[in-house]
Amino acid sequence: MDDIRLNVALLRRKVPNLTTAAKSIGIRPATVSNLCTGKIDLGKAEVRTLVGLATLANCSVDELILRGEKLNMIETQIKTLDFFAPLVKGGTTGIVARPGMGQIVILAELMHRFKESEYTTVFLLPVKNHQELEGTTELANIVTTTIDETFKILTSQIGDVIFITDKSYIVSGELFDLQEKLVAERVQNITTILVDLSGEVVDEELPYGPLETLWQLDADLAIRHQFPAVHPIYSTSSILEGIELDQRHFNLRQRTQKLLRRYRELRSVMTVHGREKIPAGELETYHRGERLEAYFTQPLFVAEDFTGKQGKAVRLALTLQDVESILEGKTDHLSVDELRYCGSLV
């Protein structure tokens, strides 16, 4: 079978209120979300689901399916993002979090890292004033306040753009109008990151509509100050479910998620009943899970004044090497504290 994936961009443009529309024809929003991010292999999707989505988008099933088109990732050098849910170049990424879980810090860090890169960051401010953005938006190359102003800026950029904005423009429908105009102008160099400053998106079945990448933050990690608090199981990216990804990366991610799922179960047992209730045969799994969780914390440049820790950038190649070492027990001699906020092990 050809390499195929869902035409998320088309679906996003054609069906703004996808959650309601999908439900109305008997398609679960979670199914749509999993197809968009690649959690469900498109080749295994039910025909009626694809026909239903094509009907909603007023297109043919062939138009809804992209064949043989390779996705590319934008390497952020933030370990947990690049490893579990890479940013898809030209795609749409949504951050799902409640206030206080670190989403603003992640945005600030990304803008800081892209500042001197080939990417231009454009931040469209929300209509309402959000005090928590103070000191953050200044990190963007360009800050806009209206859709019209944003359209002019985006169409004038020659290079690649990281476009950041708030969910309020999805609710108003203005973001979809902007995307339609950009498509009409054949603007294709934009990677979009969506944030919900209200935190209400956490309770939605299909956050933001169709997404190529989902970064879901984890309250438990945030409470324990394990930042960036990106959920290693629920965060996902369409780039990880196909041959676009290096096979070694794909296999390591699968192994890591399997181990972390069991570690989280064992951690719940320990929290309620104590460490002595963890089966002796699974102590190795528990300890390596602890080490992996600690390893995926990372000092961020924008937080240096608050944490006193120097920011670290870790190339994906090093992250893969480090994770492989942890999984194979080569770091069993290191304590959890030695791995926490360590950057790379090299």
Automatic annotation (TrEMBL):
This is ATP synthase subunit B. Belongs to the ATPase alpha/beta chains family. Keywords: ATP synthesis, ATP-binding, CF(1), Ion transport, Membrane, Nucleotide-binding, Translocase, Transport. PROSITE patterns: ATPASE_ALPHA_BETA. InterPro entries: ATPase_a/bsu_AS (IPR020003), ATPase_alpha/beta_chains (IPR050053), ATPase_F1/V1_b/a_C (IPR024034), P-loop_NTPase (IPR027417). The lineage of its organism: Bacteria, Bacillati, Bacillota, Bacilli, Bacillales. It is found in: Membrane. It comes from the Bacteria.
